[in-house]
Amino acid sequence: MESKFYNNKSDKLILVFSGWGSDENIFSHLSGEKYDVIICYNYTHVRPESCLGCDCVMEQKSTQCPFYNIFKRYSEINVVAWGTGVWMASLTFELYFHHLGAQGRFKILRLIKKIRRSVAINGTLFPISNTWGLSQRMFNNTVEGFKEDVANNFTAANSPRLEKFNLKICSNRTTYSRYMAQAPHRGLEDLLNELVAIKENFTVSNAILWNKAIIGTKDTIIPAKHQTRFWTDYDLGTDRTKRIASESGGFKIEYIDAPHYPFFLWKSWDEIVEM
User: Do 168 and 221 contact (CB within 8 A), yes or no?
Assistant: First the structure.
């Protein structure tokens, strides 16, 4: 996992888990006025022994690591996750809490209480699912398309498959043009490796108490009906999506008129966590 840290000299943090194929550039128009912000992306390698999934091993963690002592450094932590990042956020915390297991359940509960708000945007805990996520067929077609483009020596700048995907997440040419002006700075093979890793590393995880799911009605990547089905089950506590009761109260689903990438609706991360 890679990350980008924005230090706004705050004692409050917004921890962002971005979707597949991204980096911090796709959020360059969003400010973080009242919060420090850490944007996580590229889930090709997630290390169970690390401090929240980055390349910094807990026993050798450096003060230069943006995750270093975040539960001590911040009075509150807010999680915002998008697309595949919804699943990865939960998995990352699950691995982190598992590593702390020897230190006792009560310490873990104290850390969890510092997570004030968790917002899922156009994603579920099942990134690949014919019921709750991206369909298996679409996922396989995407992988094969990227393999073909890599084999034909296309780059991220001219890949037909990547252009098609970016158009789908934006839904129209106007949004697409604006998105491409701040497109990720990542190579095509790098994107393919991450896509394959997501499937290989998938395991059911439910380590975060989500407060809100924001669903784009124009999402054609993870269809709104799949998201609605998942989060309804989650709120009702059914099957593998069972939700632990929240002391702070209620879970909400909010629908927005937006495609899979909805972030041009907002000007700051503050707006998203406080809406």
Answer: yes
**Which sequence spans correspond to the domains of the chain?**
2-132+204-274, 136-197
How far apart (Å, rounded) are the C-alpha atoms in residues 121 and 19?
10
- Is domain 2-132+204-274 classified as CATH 3.40.50? yes
Q: For residue 62, how far is the Cα from the chain centroid? A: 24
Question: What DSSP character marks residue 258?
Answer: -
What is the reported pTM?
Answer: 0.89
DSSP-derived 3-state class of residue 107: helix
By the 8 A CB rule, do 215 and 250 touch? no
Which residues of the chain are under the pLDDT cut of 70? 47-68, 99-108, 235-249
At 222, phi and psi to the nearest 5? -110, 95
How do beta strands 252-256 and 2-6 pair?
unpaired
Task: Give Cα 24 to chain centroid, integer Å.
Answer: 12
pLDDT in tens, 163-197: 999 999 999 999 999 999 999 999 999 999 999 99
Measured CA to CA, the distance from residue 264 to residue 30 in angstroms comes to 9
What pLDDT does 112 receive? 75
Nearest to 68 by CA among 36, 113, 44: 36
